[in-house]
């Protein structure tokens, strides 16, 4: 009941705040480097940002005067209802006016106040464009501004038109941001709701005032605007794309406004396609509906044959399936090789003379062949070895490859026996043995597998295999419900080469250079391939029934085979006849020629015929009378350029390549293309055609592919296939996710009692060394605050603990999180997850100057250099002593942390005196040296007589002298050099304090007995932090007996999970054993290994992973620091009694080794609660995880 009452109070507070006025995120006069990140933070946290503008009365009067002029000529008109709902609701968009509409003269409004308001929207876009990648998307541009009138909606809004539906669907679907400029004259209320608010998020209300601007996430929030009196809003969407690879939103994933228009378009398209069924394709003419809608319609609803290709197989060079074939083609592989000895000794037949055919020689020596064709499983097909040995190799391959295609479709021998499956084969034998009956290839297949459908062979030269596909598709539903089309051509005899060389058909260069000016013919190729087809839909009670569960490699929607009749010659290709073939397929499929994305050409490497074929394709698929759109180019492919010419089976290779292009969403390149064929004129292959020299994306997940083959006898065959990208083969992105705001000020849901404090929210941070948590003050319902004074680091980190309990910690989901981030918890103290108030600035050289030093580094900076520097920093940049108000907002189940700078803005001269006084009373800091001579523990420095200067005298007992400076014994506050600080290095720029010190330290370059004095200067100069490190050699001094003993003793250091092994800490010797302390982290477990003499190639570890006290293991080492020692750690926290926060003392016992001493035994015990650990803490012997 108390929580319900609190929820009601919170809702009332939300409404009250809306009525009192908007919470402004960006105030007038803020510079771009401040306002940009402020808008970004608000968009990241709550999904919208409120921007206050101080435009004055002249602006308001001027814009209202412009609106009055617009209304006077009746340009403000009611929009369709579905469009209004996607803008600002039916009331918020009662009437609209598009500033980019055709009837608007651009010069008419130039210099007007409303154009000025439009430019303000553009400035917001320019400000956010480089920042939006942090929101997970990039902006591609903004839509033209639309003027909206907030008033009572029209009782009879106009109907949505096709053009409007197409425009607004694309806008609402890709919109990422919406910028609203409220022009007045009345105040209003902007209601915001989260899309898909299944978590019962309450709406949030923003009071709108004249001149105010709101930027909101259009892909996250629903928005409606109301006002008591008519008011006006200028709006513009910013469209873009997600950075992370997600699937494009469709259906229920769309924005509700886009989803409603999408459903309207689906219904509209269905009615248009039904009309096209009853009439002809002119019902879908672009003059009657937008081309974009026509394109969608023809991809959504298939007409024509609709024969599904359910299985394919191949023996094409080394490609035994469609996947391998596509991938090799996509990489531009060239399959041409010299004729292998497995076929014949081609050296006996080859001579480079182009006229060598007169004396029995051929001038071509290259081909593309498939290996291992002699392999045959005769038992599977119940064929005796004697019969198999007499069979033509083509017949054997037809059996194997044909059955593979059926098997890939999920069929087995028992499914084929007595079935109505038709067998259609285009093949030609080159052997002298075997049957001369061409139909035997198909007939033997039907006999061996018991298929009772039609069984026939085709022979129309290059068009044979494609004719087989055409017959198989046409016979579906007539002679049978399924069919297998095959093509087979195997190079087995050189005599055909002699005929081809006599006709100068083969390429002397040994390559098929399709579309190239240097094309000189083709090379021969092996191809055995099959395609299994079945009806995609069946009739049931006069209705079409689709089987959506069936996966397919493509859908053949039309097939056309025509003979040219009498033309110039029997073997010449006729452009007009090719166009007739294309047009017949398009009419049968009821699609526009502009819907065809890819054309797999015959392209046999003849300059004249390639030019005629491309010209026919362009006239058929991108006719000039239609004024081809450059945004819809047709892509030309040529399988023969990679695979060679497989003669009667070449059509089947073309079909497989075309189907694969649709399955994988990209088109392989045309290889060997160096200079375009001169007969392919520039006006033909310009912006409307692509001849790819590399694999290119199809630009859509669905596509139409036309595949072409023509024979020497004048037979032209063409197949038109529809396909979609197969998500099982191609990763299209992760599931689309609707984003939610991190913190929703409208609230929703409730926190459980375990998530609420019993007394107070408390805050703790670096200002108090993570001790003494302080209660936060309740400022308002669900708002708790605390004032933090910025210390000398110019940054502070903090967490929020419930009732001061570190095991009930509220924290961000990332280390050093900025303001307005998600709040997680309460959890046991999560190491590394804190908020960071970053007040530091950095001085960078002004462009053209030679100054190049960082603010606060240790080098001297001349006055002239200081003038050449400029300060840069974030929105929180401030001086030492600045005060920040940290606030926790808790509304329902949503929480976030924010802060604002109260004092200490560097540009504010009036506050510098107040800030300086606050800096004087800051708690004093202590500084320690952490170095190799003290085992990277803490050795305190003492303050000298000079304020802000600390010193330490060092007596080296070994070579070396690497060191860093640590503030308040906190390894998250380390000072280190900007450079690496290697051997012989001098004092350099001082970086820090932070934890980015890995691998960087100063080096004394000292020897045994040397003494040094290290000084560290840190002063506050006008609120800026200036540091310097220096050292001097002060002499030599003999070592004491204790120092000599320590120098002789083997050193052991621990590395462990508390810091990811980033820092070694030397163990302390007490005369009997080495020891150190470990505090268990939030997971109640820590692991470690030991290192001898700080040498990473001398590691000691247990022989078993996660070794504990009660486990039987051996101590191994010294081992090389490689993969062999990884995972072999001592583990504290696996015996059941340990818990987070427990401190354990680890003892290491040694023994004499070959070099120094070795680890003999490791044991540990829990430290009692009454033991004084202050000395160990001061020396840095207690190893624990960091908070920041």
TrEMBL record:
| Any one GO molecular function term | fatty acid synthase activity
CDD domains named among the record's database cross-references: PKS
Q: Name one Pfam family in it.
A: Ketoacyl-synt_C
An example GO BP is: fatty acid biosynthetic process
Entry keyword set? Phosphopantetheine, Phosphoprotein
Q: Which InterPro entries does this chain map to?
A: Ketoacyl_synth_C, Ketoacyl_synth_N, PKS_assoc_dom, PKS_Beta-ketoAc_synthase_dom, PKS_NRPS_Biosynth_Enz, Thiolase-like
**Ranges in coiled-coil conformation:** none
> Residue ranges of the Ketosynthase family 3 (KS3) domain?
304-723
Instruction: Give yes or no: UniProt keyword DNA-binding.
Output: no
Please identify the protein, giving its name as recorded.
Answer: Ketosynthase family 3 (KS3) domain-containing protein
Which source organism does the UniProt entry give? Alexandrium monilatum
What lineage is on file? Eukaryota, Sar, Alveolata, Dinophyceae, Gonyaulacales
